[in-house]
Amino acid sequence: MSLPFSRCVDASIRTSTLVLLFVAIFTVSPAASQSRISDVEQEIVEYIEANVDGAIDLLERTVNINSGTMNFAGVREVGHIFRAELDQLGFTTRWIDGAPFERAGHLIAERRGSGPGILLIGHLDTVFEEDSPFQRFERLSDSVVRGPGVIDMKGGNVIIVLALQSLQSVGLLEDLNIAVVLHGDEEQSGAPLSLARQTLVQLAQTADVAIGFEDGDGNPETAVIARRGFTGWQLNVRGRRAHSSLVFSDDIGFGAVYESARILNDFREQLVGERYLTFNPGIIVGGTTIDFDLEQSRASAFGKTNVIAESTTVAGDLRTISREQLESAKTRMRAIVSQNLSHTSAEIVFEDLYPPMAPTDGNQQLLTMVDQVSRDLGYGPVEAVDPGAAGAADISFVADHVEMAIDGLGLMGDGGHTLSETADLRTLPMQAKRAAILIHRLSRDNN
Ligand SMILES: [Zn+2]
């Protein structure tokens, strides 16, 4: 990073005094920001720089173990490796058995000191199951590696470990009040979801701050302080079965298909355009008889072109930025559903899956702290990701229970969930330093 900058300095000095002044200002600023790092923070920085190679080895080892969500043995094996790292740091670790929610389980590590409760969130599983062609960690260049789950999010887990190691190396881990949760089912959550996220919510209830180490939008100049929640809905509509020639008549009415179309069109006309609100009917089936399997997301129907449809089912999602927006949308959707065309009836059932993480003042404050840490380290500002672009994540379950929450502090790169998932290794020490110093300052300022 500094090399091209110094070259630019050499060239500019020869050019003009105006440029010289410009260069003087900009060459001073990194030095000035360095001085904002305290002595102990400087030691943290040095520890991390000296231990990046070990962290990359840990990343390679864990990426090379398949831990697709449904490969329970693999998820547990990756869990064992991170558990050993956290045991070494003096954490009390336990494995939550995933059998009750049909997944591998979760790793929980706690170290209870006097400071504010800080919850660090990662996950062990990836979207790449054992039958995926994508199984190995591969170096593409000095700074770029490719591998399944390298940024989503074994890299984030490694950053948690490296940040905690650096805090231990300077004797700061002793007083911290930290819990680490590494889920085994982030990519394909266990069911019931309330059970699969029970421990996370319990830990959040006693925590003050939550930090997620997902890869965010892949850009180290951003972090996530708001995520839209995700609610599923199913619309079931009934009409009166009769010969098609009688449709629209006073006795028979409009049938299930017209009523479904009315409802969906009213949703669109009345709710579209509100910021951060989206709802999408993903599957629809209608006819004389229908068979809808939500679990498998499959449907079949029997109907005839000369028969008025008796049944329709539509299933979709609803994404919102806050609980208020969610409740308001549900109320309006229910009202639309209730205004039935003649001789039809309809009901809509909602299932809240991921709660929204609203952009609260607390989250904004935490972002301000991250931004300051980043500037002090000479890495420049950190801004909030557009919540419209951020999908639901585990941090959403804790956002309501803590004072401050932020996500997207993990290893950066691109191509998550694809065969070209790559990481920019330069962001590994960068994110570990930011995390360690953030944790230190959160504890220092609140002790
Ligand atoms: Zn993830």
Give a structural overview.
The chain has helices at 2-15, 17-34, 39-50, 52-63, 72-88, 150-169, 193-196, 198-205, 255-271, 323-338, 361-376, 396-399, 427-446; strands at residues 92-97, 105-111, 117-123, 138-139, 144-146, 177-183, 209-212, 222-223, 229-238, 278-287, 289-293, 298-302, 311-320, 345-354, 383-384, 404-406, 413-414, 422-424. The protein is an alpha+beta fold and 447 residues long. It has 3 domains: 2-34, no CATH class; 40-226 and 357-446, Zn peptidases (Aminopeptidase, 3-Layer(aba) Sandwich), CATH 3.40.630.10; 229-354, Alpha-Beta Plaits, CATH 3.30.70. α9 (255-271) runs antiparallel to α10 (323-338). The longest helix has 20 residues, at 150-169. The protein is elongated, with a radius of gyration of 26 Å. The two termini are 36 Å apart. It binds zinc ion (ZN). Zinc ion is lined by residues 123, 152-153, 186, 214.
Bound molecules: zinc ion
Total DSSP E strands: 18
Give me the CATH architecture of the largest domain, please. Answer: 3-Layer(aba) Sandwich
The overall average pLDDT, rounded, is 92
Q: Please state how the strands of the largest beta sheet are arranged side by side.
A: 1-2-6-3-7-16
Largest sheet: 6 strands, mixed
End-to-end gap: 36 Å
User: Rough shape?
Assistant: elongated
